[in-house]
């Protein structure tokens, strides 16, 4: 399945969120905090790692398993390429009754992201994504859609035409389709973290393809450290962030391509139907992984000035922007999370 949006991008740079262990634990640390137990699986079309600090392996493994069940649950519900998912049924039928409350919550929250970003984030962008994908898939023209094709398809992109009444959802325009690619992974991370907390886990993290949330400390008094890979030197981190009970997500033109030759990436502007190419990446730190996921995508689409202005208006949200000329632009409070 695809959980990200589509764009044509020609920049061959790579940036990625990495867990970087800058402060190896000692035997004494492990006695105080427990052992770090980790499991990695492929879910939601990405690599998901769940790690917990615990003094008991059986308890840790059981908690990790429950957290993975939450991620699988979100995948089953919100995968728009899985015919049996509620999201796929909504796209096919244009309406859905007795909808799962989690799906209603995520769609409602997505409308908030759209309003906050002046439409730069819009889950109804799916028809545009499918248009671009069809051009750069086997049998396609391997050329950008025409202006006429884009304008015609854009008629279906309108988050305000998603109507929610009680437990019923209706797409008011025939042919509208939704994708939760900009929020589903983040929401899955939030649910997995909630599951760990409910099991009594006080320290650990869930990282789904760069969307991560980190709770507690890795060692006594030492927060988790997350590195953002340097676009020029992939063995180095351009920034190291200290995470404690916070989430971080990165969006950029480096993550994924539908076709290597065409360099079809994953982020388009739902207001224009064309690729967003002004930035290399956007990293957002906030309390919720879903918020970080959505706002990272929104800022990437909005660009340096409008994106930064939006972040500065939001409470508890910080960002780091890497521009196409490789300048680092920080929001007002981002430095507070940087490791010295």
Automatic annotation (TrEMBL):
It catalyses: L-threonyl-[protein] + FAD = FMN-L-threonyl-[protein] + AMP + H(+). Signal peptide: none annotated. Keywords: FAD, Flavoprotein, Magnesium, Metal-binding, Transferase. It comes from the Archaea. It is an enzyme of class 2 (transferase). Its EC number is 2.7.1.180. InterPro entries: ApbE, ApbE-like_sf. One of its GO terms (molecular function) is transferase activity. Its cofactor is Mg(2+). This is FAD:protein FMN transferase. It comes from Methanolobus halotolerans.
């Amino acid at each position: 399945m695809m959980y990200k949006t589509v764009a044509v991008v020609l920049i061959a740079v790579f940036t990625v969120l990495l867990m970087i262990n800058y402060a190896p634990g000692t035997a004494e640390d492990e006695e105080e905090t427990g052992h770090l137990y980790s499991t990695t699986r492929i879910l939601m079309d990405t690599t998901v790692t769940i790690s917990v600090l615990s003094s008991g392996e059986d308890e840790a493994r059981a908690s990790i398993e429950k957290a993975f069940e939450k991620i699988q649950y979100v995948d089953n519900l919100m995968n728009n390429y899985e015919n049996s998912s509620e999201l796929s049924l909504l796209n096919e039928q244009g309406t859905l009754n007795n909808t799962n409350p989690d799906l209603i919550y995520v769609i409602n929250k997505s409308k908030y992201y759209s309003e906050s970003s002046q439409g730069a984030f819009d889950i109804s962008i799916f028809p545009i994504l499918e248009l671009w994908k069809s051009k750069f898939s086997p049998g396609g023209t391997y050329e950008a859609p025409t202006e006429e094709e884009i304008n015609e398809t854009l008629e279906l992109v309108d988050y305000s035409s998603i109507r929610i009444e009680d437990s019923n959802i209706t797409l008011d325009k025939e042919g509208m389709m939704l994708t939760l690619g900009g929020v589903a992974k983040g929401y899955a991370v939030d649910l997995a973290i909630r599951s760990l907390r409910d099991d009594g886990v006080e320290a650990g993290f869930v990282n789904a393809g760069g969307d991560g949330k980190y709770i507690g400390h890795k060692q006594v008094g030492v927060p988790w450290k997350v590195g953002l890979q340097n676009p020029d030197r992939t063995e180095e981190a351009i920034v190291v962030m200290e995470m404690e009970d916070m989430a971080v997500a990165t969006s950029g033109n480096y993550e994924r391509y539908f076709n290597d030759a065409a360099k079809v990436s994953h982020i388009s502007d739902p207001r224009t139907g064309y690729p967003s190419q002004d930035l290399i990446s956007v990293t957002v730190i906030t309390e919720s992984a879903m918020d970080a996921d959505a706002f990272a995508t929104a800022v990437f689409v909005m660009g340096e000035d409008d994106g930064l202005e939006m972040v500065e208006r939001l409470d508890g949200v910080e960002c780091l922007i890497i521009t196409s000329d490789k300048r680092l632009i920080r929001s007002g409070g981002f430095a507070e999370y940087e490791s010295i």
